[in-house]
Design a protein that fits this description.
This protein has 186 residues and is mostly helical. The chain is built from eight helices and no strands. Helix 4 packs antiparallel against helix 5, helix 4 packs across helix 6 and helix 7 packs antiparallel against helix 8. The longest helix has 19 residues. Pfam families: SRA1.
Length: 186
């Protein structure tokens, strides 16, 4: 066989198979997908129209809404009243002192934790934190004061999920404090 015979017998990559039998329903005619479909004057407000049901949002009942406070309501993690920033500061100093006394932690890490706490303290005093965030922070420090380190960590995760943008500037310091206290307790 020469090369000219070979090229005439080889099908193109996009050619239909030679043994394909097109039925009457199948046609090789192209359907133009970039053409507009003519608008039909249908009643779009009818209740039978299934596309109309997709335009209305689902109804949300008040009982289906879960608040953060309900997630935190158990005997060990919730205190009825909000801790003041001074009380939180005292708890923080006590926990930081525990870490300093352990001598297993680098001084730079302690400084970083202290800097991030100072950011939280400033934002609290300048009323930049919502009441919900203050309550959750209060719960975290209440748990730390009670030496419930794992519960404090769990509440910290809830805080990050619910108010991440509000606490982003200081939450890593609180997380690191909790993690170092967890290491210390193990």
């Amino acid at each position: 066989m020469n090369s000219s015979d070979k090229s005439s017998t080889i099908d193109g990559w996009n050619d239909p198979p030679a043994n394909l039998n097109l039925s009457e329903n199948m046609s090789t005619k192209r359907i133009l997908l970039n053409k507009r479909v003519p608008y039909t004057n249908q009643d779009l407000t009818s209740t039978n129209n299934s596309s109309n049901s997709l335009t209305t949002p689902p109804v949300c009942s008040p009982s289906s809404i879960i608040s953060t406070s309900s997630l935190l309501d158990n005997d060990t993690s919730t205190k009825d009243n909000l801790l003041t920033i001074e009380e939180i500061n005292e708890i923080f100093k006590k926990q930081l002192k525990k870490l300093e006394d352990s001598s297993n932690i680098e001084k730079k890490i302690l400084e970083d934790i202290n800097k991030k706490f100072q950011v939280m303290y400033d934002e609290w005093c300048q009323e930049k934190l919502s009441l919900n965030t203050k309550q959750i922070l209060s719960n975290i420090f209440h748990e730390l004061d009670s030496d419930h380190i794992q519960q404090a960590f769990d509440i910290h995760i809830i805080l990050v999920r619910n108010a991440g943008s509000e606490v982003i500037r200081f939450i890593v310091g609180i997380k690191r404090l909790i993690q170092e206290l967890q290491k210390l307790s193990n």
